[in-house]
Amino acid sequence: MLVMMAEWTVDCRVDVGPLAQAFFGGKESVAVPSGFESELREYLRAARSAGSDFSVGDLEFVRYVAARARDGRLPPTEYAPDLLLACACSQGIASAIETFRERFLPVMARVLARRKAPAHVADDVQQIVQQRLLVGETAGEVSKIAGYRGSGPLRTWVASAAATTLLMHQRSVRRRHEEAHGSQGSEPGVPLEPELELMRRRYAPQLENALAEALNLLSERQRTLLRLHWGENMTVDVLGSIYGVSRSTAARWVTDARRALGIKTREILQQTLECSTSECDSLVALVKSRIELSILRRLRDA
Fold this sequence. Notes:
With 302 residues, the protein is an all-alpha fold. The chain has 14 helices and 2 strands, in the order E-E-H-H-H-H-H-H-H-H-H-H-H-H-H-H.
């Protein structure tokens, strides 16, 4: 005999408890396997065996698992703790994110070290991976760790993400602007008038100090974007691929970061030199090449 429960069909001869209802909820017709409620209870016990439940409720986690199950089958029980951690991280639970970093930042570091990634590149890659997996890149976007299905070790999944991000980074790297233009070369073109040359020499240190302070006021993502875009000459297409967003979104982020750097630098200069906006713009134009090189050096060392 078949009866209707909610919006799906169940067989009264099998044990259909609250966990199975949560797992199959919303489906019009489901043949619930015999003993499935017991399998779900065992899966929950395995998931919580690592010692923390991260305040994720049983029914909530079962629904999360169901959304990632293939053909209505539970993922392997051995990876249940990993899937619970991913579930909690996708909800932004602080203790879960801290646990993720404790467990997997060393994994990413080893992957990048084996591939001989320079320290500053490894730092960039780890930050990008964390942003993609744990934060989500735009308001309301689900973090990428929600894509982990629990079918294999989370360690392997994270290591693969780090290796893939590094590979994309390496393919996009070109000769740095600083190497192309020379580290301390003079600005090309017609020599400046003596008075302008004096102004350039006089105010260059204040401009560079303002720039350094402005860079420190940017967010970590903004500094990373500028480092990759300017320092590595990385295109917005590649940045979009690395961050898992569209080209237009990556271009907007770069534009916003550049605008923020310019605004903050101008504000600091106006306070330091007590000059107008137009005067600040004139000073910046005088030492533009030197400032561009300074930006690259400071981003590289950030």
